[in-house]
Design a protein that fits this description.
two-stranded antiparallel ribbon; alpha+beta; DNA-binding; 3-stranded mixed β-sheet; binds zinc ion; about 30% helix; 5 strands; Arc Repressor Mutant, subunit A; homodimer; binds manganese (II) ion
Chain lengths: ~140, ~140
DNA sequence: TTTTGTTTGCAACATTATTTCATTTGACAT
DNA sequence: ATGTCAAATGAAATAATGTTGCAAACAAAA
């Protein structure tokens, strides 16, 4: 499903910034930060428009935001846009050394029962450590 | 265990900003943001010193940082400083309505097995929803 | 093609975080 | 108690991140 189709499906106008952001995320194997998206957008990048587009895409459920730590925010396409039907119900891995972030789409978030009175809406799980590239046990 | 004792235990110098930050967190039932700590510090608050003190206290394992979302960061004393011996191995709850954050000290983080090659160091879990005060099911 | 409401992009602003460096201070030894 | 010195503070400057208001541009539908 390409950017135009995704936007249409969600009844959003097809605009250049939106299309470019979706393309950037779609062609990347990993979630991207604002600056990484910026690099892929070239001329079409405008900071404010980026923030507003991201907001719209998040609300529509087209992308999800991953907050790896207090200074690292990245974005990824939701897999439901690709035919499979996961939600943002998977675990994320953040490499403390190279700052890479990985969607572990196959590792589902386990459920917790909250104390009574609390209403659960969503659950974010970020595992931190060393990725395969930074693990000294693995020779490259 | 008071602030002076905690600092001594970790071989850190007893300074006014550190003591005041620890006291602020110790006397609060909930994790505090920078501004909430600031309010409790009065004259003794300086932004740069706050950031550096927090960094030191984090490294020493005296406090933990909770990143509730991309714009909400809070801090809490580690319970091991209070006699019990939990680590920062518990789930956090974030109320999307009133932005309150709660350490669910009794709800331990479940373990995940990562794909081979990844090294796990820590795991952050934030559950979002409505707290007991914001849950319309509960009459106040 | 004309209309209409949405989206964009600029400017200005607010908040959060980091680096450099001179001054102060806590801890320890005298 | 006093002096010493490394460590910590606080001021200034800078960078990075996020938000709001508004006029012009644009997408989608008539
Ligand atoms: Mn993901
Ligand atoms: Mn906690
Ligand atoms: Zn890595
Ligand atoms: Zn609440």
């Amino acid at each position: 499903m390409n950017a135009a189709e995704i936007l249409k499906t969600h009844q959003l106008k097809k605009t250049s910034p939106r299309v470019t952001i979706i393309n950037a995320l779609q062609t990347s194997q990993f979630p991207l930060s604002e600056n990484e998206v910026k690099d892929k957008m070239g001329e079409l990048y405008d900071r404010i428009t980026f923030y507003r587009s991201v907001h719209t895409l998040l609300e529509a459920g087209i992308i999800h935001r991953i907050v790896a730590d207090n200074t690292t925010v990245k974005y990824a396409l939701n897999h439901c846009n690709e035919g499979h039907h996961h939600e943002a119900d998977h675990v994320h891995f953040f490499c403390e050394q190279c700052k890479a972030l990985v969607c572990l789409n196959d590792i589902k978030i386990q459920s917790y029962s909250l104390p009574s009175g609390f209403v659960k809406k969503e659950c974010d799980v970020v595992i931190k450590g060393l990725c395969t590239s930074c693990n000294p046990q693995i020779e490259q």
